[in-house]
Fold Endonuclease V.
Amino acid sequence: MEDPLLNFLVKFQSLVARNVVISHLGVENVNKICALDVAYKGNKGYAVAVYFDGQGYDHNVVIDEVKFPYIPTFLFIREAPLMIKALEKYQDQCQLTLIDGHGLAHPRKSGIATVIGVLLDIPTIGVAKSRLFGEEVKEDSEIYILAHGEKVGIKKGKFYFSIGNKVDLNDVKVLARKGYPEILKLADKLSKEAKGKNS
DNA sequence: GCGACAG
DNA sequence: ATCTTGTCGC
């Protein structure tokens, strides 16, 4: 890590990791949820925040030029700014925000879900479609994800759920049991729609 | 040096 | 993530 910028980002992530709050939210009793995802077309990013109020869905799209490339373990600097902008509309109403990517299942316990959760001081859970970091251990018919020896999430099918901020392993477990969240499928669909429209 | 590597 | 044809399987 001799690149000064990446070296700086590593320190930033370490600061974020030191400020993560792991506490019980009670996902089973939460009905107002948000989800974040981003689609790309060239150097344009199409971020979408989807909000479910317990009855129906609403969403907000934010489009902007993305300057930073994708570098494994540094996804947050590329996508978080746009995601946060898209979430502003519902930020005060969401009891929990699901984010496309990992949370604590990251080499520095600072995946994009954790970064956004700590920066905004809100409950978040990371949901990723593939592996980035951590050992997988089976226990009680569950596959736990360990980061530096600590249980930080659960693998369910082909998906990886991990603590972002202000939730605990129990919350993640309850969410994971239901499979890939419908609201994230919607976020994925809507971001790709926005991308197609703006061409 | 080699392999792994969210979106 | 995105680019992309046909193809294997429920």
About this structure: The longest helix of chain A spans residues 182-197. The beta strands of chain A are 33-41, 44-52, 57-65, 96-100, 124-128, 135-139, 142-147, 150-156, 159-165. DSSP finds five helices and nine strands in chain A. Chain A has a mean pLDDT of 96.
